[in-house]
Structure formats: C-alpha cells, structure tokens
Amino acid sequence: EPQKTGFFGRMQNPNQPQTPEFKKLRRIYWILMGIALVAVILSLVTQMTGLFTQPAWMICLGAAYLCAIGGIVLDIAKIRPMQKAYTQQFASGGKKTPKQIKHETEAAAYAREIERAREAERAAKKGTNRAGMLKSKNRMGQGLEQGSANDKTKAGEKPID
User: Fold this and answer.
1) pLDDT band at 103 (very low <50, low <70, confident <90, very high)
2) Is the whole model's pTM more than 0.70, yes or no?
3) Could you give the CA distance from residue 14 to residue 7 in angstroms, rounded to a whole number?
4) What pLDDT was estimated at residue 5?
C-alpha cells in the first residue's frame, strides 16, 4: 500500500523509486519547470505592459526556454532511466513471462557454451587435452596422449619414457 508523503500528503507512485537521489532529481525538475513557467508569465507581462524595454522580456523568455529545456534533459537523461530500472527490477513482482524465462535460459546456455570453448582454447594453448593429459609426440612425430604410467600399465601397454 502506497504511503502518504510528500507535497500536500499526496500518494506516492509505486513505479517510482523512493531513493534520496531520485527525490532530489524530481525536486530539481519541478523547480526548473516552475521557474520556466514564472519566466514565461513575466515575459508576457513585461511585453504587454511596456514597463520594461524589449531586452527585458527577451531575457525572461530565454530564461524560460533554458529552464524548460534543462528540465526536459534532466528528465530524459537521469530520471527516466532510474524509473525504468526500478520498474524492471521491482515492479514486476518477480513474475516472469514464459518468453522471458526462455530468453534467460537460452542466454545462460549460450554463455556456458562460450565458456567451454574458451576453456578448450586455453587448454590447447597450454598443450593439454580436455582430460588434462599432456600431449606429446612419439618417435615418429605422431601425437600421443600420455596419462600417468599406472594408466598405461593397467591397460597392458608399456609406458612411454
């Protein structure tokens, strides 16, 4: 159940993180939008009344644009990614669709396959096969896999020196 906090005790949006950083950014966003609104109104008033010169209302209008654009950039660059990450992490309630589960299992299998390939490549560079046996060559130049001497004698073969 959402808690009543904030300005005028309004209800919190459950899709928004309630971290201090997020609250600070939202506060800055609303301050920028408020300044932009006041600057637009001030610009219109100075232009209509003629009390001030032309540069005065143009400066007010420029300040309004700067604040509005700054607020939009802040929202797009900082606030929305935080909201998106929060909703993806917490708002789904841990429930995953079959498509998400399938995608995650395929990604895990692919990662395991790549790791096996890397291990095989590392083993090939070190000169060992997958079982950890040293690769050597016999007198004819052909590759042989040597295990321990006990393995060869159990099989009835003569160990290679």
Assistant:
1) confident
2) no
3) 16
4) 58
